[in-house]
Amino acid sequence: MHKVLIIGAGGVGGVVAHKCAKNPDVFGEILLASRTKSRCDAIAASVKELTGRDIATAAVDADDVPQTVALIKEFGPELVINVALPYQDLTIMDACLETGVHYMDTANYEPRDEAKFEYKWQWAYRERFEKAGLMALMGSGFDPGVTNVFCAHARDKLLDSIETIDILDCNGGEHGHAFATNFNPEINIREITQKGKYWERGEWKEIEAMSQSMDFDFPEVGVRKAYLLYHEELESLVQHIPGLQRIRFWMTFGESYIKHLEVLQNVGMTSIEPIQFQGREVIPIEFLKALLPDPASLAANYTGKTSIGCLVKGKKDGADKTVFVYNTCDHAETYKEVRAQAVSYTTGVPATVGAEMMLTGQWMRPGVWHMEQFDSAPFLKRLGESGLPWHVREIEG
Ligand code: NDP
């Protein structure tokens, strides 16, 4: 039985808290901490109602290393599951190093003043984690996370060699709002409005945001238009898939979503540059976040499914072979189970499984590591058992 500290009580934190509570053999004692304690308390009440378990709650500002260190020392966890925002990754890693505790997250560190989606800041912690005998697991959500493991599974089990990978992410759900984002709006909008980028034959190629798209038939959703975006898992996958010639990431958006985003962008509402307004400094995208629905609040009336997978082309026994490794997840079903929509669920479940891999020693190695650097088999087994069954479809031609 292990002790874990979960930091972040948003849509994803709620799922992680419920899922850890449902697995008492691994997660013996749980503390959920976030900036706003009342959000932790509301999740703890739901955990009690749905699982019968008590979890502890606390307030913490994870931007503040001494405060985070004090909380870790007081509770004494083996692992911190960071599901706050990417801005807190480094301060939480610092606090883990100071207290001798393992670390994991679901998104790469982002400086507040520039949208980068790069791992260089966290990779700089490698030696310190190694020397301290501690492990930091990067990006144990769905994408990054499960998508990295799907690629590892294709590399290690399904194909002899890999030529190209296309990661395809579709949310075929309906939440009934004119415009809303499925996870933290600031991070989501930053991701979509930056230039698109993919990797081909050793080089990164940049394109204008949302300028390249293709139709894809997503299992259990149907044909949707997906746009080429840069996504952080590409940066580690190019290092860990030998022989890879090209890797791209695609995400679907409806026409109405794109129209809203275009207008917001044209008027400057998605900017991360501070402006002066009535004598005070305002960051437009942070103000926009305050106006948009809280992603966790979308859950109650969400219908439809997410359908996310990796289309991997390569060779098997000398012949061409293409596989699509994927998962689909139903918004209404996840709401019934843990009061969350499927985007939070598909992130929170892999975070819980990643934590289990570390705590049970199946994935435990000092240093800073990515999901595809471990054996995919135990993770994928537990992923299916934990509510995210996955499938392999062979694609002809
Ligand atoms: P939310 O915005 O719903 O929740 C974020 C939580 O973090 C809130 O409870 C917030 O507190 C808390 N928080 C923010 N700043 C601090 C701080 N300084 N100290 C302590 N707590 C803080 O986000 P989501 O739950 O949707 O997303 C959580 C993470 O998961 C993000 O990093 C996101 O990028 C990542 N993600 C990863 C995905 C993947 O597939 N890999 C997919 C979706 C999300 P407060 O309530 O006070 O604001």
> What is the CATH-assigned architecture of the largest domain?
2-Layer Sandwich
Integer tally of domains:
2
Overall geometric form: globular
The overall average pLDDT, rounded, is: 95
Helix percent band: 25-40%
Q: Count of helical segments?
A: 14
Question: What does it look like?
Answer:
49% of the residues are buried. The chain is 37% helix and 28% strand. With 397 residues, it is of the alpha/beta class. Bound molecules: NADPH dihydro-nicotinamide-adenine-dinucleotide phosphate. The site of NADPH dihydro-nicotinamide-adenine-dinucleotide phosphate has 35 residues, from α1 and α13.
Index terms:
7-stranded parallel sheet; Rossmann fold; binds NADPH dihydro-nicotinamide-adenine-dinucleotide phosphate; Dihydrodipicolinate Reductase, domain 2
Q: Helix and strand layout, with pairings?
A:
Blueprint: E1 2-7, H1 11-21, E2 27-34, H2 37-51, E3 56-59, H3 65-75, E4 79-82, H4 89-99, E5 102-105, H5 120-123, H6 126-132, E6 135-138, H7 146-158, E7 161-171, H8 185-193, E8 196-200, E9 203-207, E10 213-218, E11 222-229, H9 233-240, E12 246-252, H10 255-266, E13 275-277, E14 280-282, H11 284-291, E15 305-316, E16 319-330, H12 331-338, H13 342-359, E17 367-370, H14 376-385, E18 391-395
Parallel strand pairs: 1-2, 1-4, 2-3, 4-5, 5-6, 6-17, 7-12
Antiparallel strand pairs: 7-15, 8-9, 8-12, 10-11, 11-12, 13-14, 15-16, 16-18
The chain binds NADPH dihydro-nicotinamide-adenine-dinucleotide phosphate.
Residues 7-13, 34-36, 39, 60-63, 83-86, 88, 106-107, 139, 141-145, 183-184, 187, 295-296, 344, 347 line the site of NADPH dihydro-nicotinamide-adenine-dinucleotide phosphate.
